[in-house]
Design brief:
Shape: globular
Distance between the termini: 23 Å
Largest sheet: none
Helix content: over 70%
Strand content: under 5%
Order of helices and strands: HHHHHHHHHH
Length: about 200
């Protein structure tokens, strides 16, 4: 049973969201490079120390759903049903993330990211971190019996699938094509008798 967040947690989450929303609005209105941390804090009516208690850097303000995305990816591994194949579970999650990031209201944000070397570098480091978290979850699943190298390779393929599909003219078609290759790679790495990568009963 999920315990509802308490008043303190709700207030903290609301403050975090207010800071992120304010930052994004300012970045889109004035340009990412033209807005400083103090500008965001002042506009959100919070102290700079409060801002940094929620976000470690200016770049993190743009990727405020970073932790949520990372958790969703690892939960696609750890939260799937005992006999559910791994790759289709990961594909569903990647497809949901791609659709979120290719919505019409996301276009200006990605245009801003692509125009900023600092944001591009941050996004690349974020994707590598997500891949490592996903690889750790795959390697830790006793029903998958994968080596660390195989787990990291499949995780990288999955994270790259997200980036490639997000940038493709037809994201769903791109995912179909990419995940056929991932399925083939997974079949090669799976132990004999478990080509679908289902969890142990």
């Amino acid at each position: 049973m999920t315990v509802p967040p308490g008043r303190r947690e709700r207030k903290k989450a609301a403050t975090r969201q207010k800071i992120a929303d304010t930052a994004l609005r300012l970045f889109l209105e004035r340009g990412y490079e033209a807005v400083g941390i103090r500008d965001v804090a002042a506009e959100a009516d919070v102290a700079v120390t409060t801002l940094f208690s929620h976000f470690a850097s200016k770049e993190a303000l743009v990727f405020e759903q970073d932790d949520d995305f990372e958790q969703r990816l690892t939960q696609a591994v750890t939260g799937r049903a005992p006999h559910e194949p791994l790759i289709p579970a990961l594909r569903r999650e990647i497809q949901a993330l791609v659709r979120h990031c290719t919505a019409d209201n996301a276009t200006p944000i990605w245009r801003m990211i692509e125009g900023s070397p600092a944001l591009r570098e941050y996004e690349e480091s974020m994707r590598l971190r997500h891949a490592e978290s996903l690889a750790t979850a795959i390697a830790a699943d006793p029903g998958l019996s994968q080596t660390t190298t195989a787990s990291r390779a499949i995780a990288r393929f999955v994270i790259d699938a997200y980036s490639l599909a997000r940038e493709a003219p037809g994201p769903d078609a791109a995912l179909d094509e990419i995940f056929r290759m991932i399925e083939a790679a997974w079949a090669v790495t799976c132990p004999s008798g478990n080509p679908t990568g289902t969890a142990a009963p």
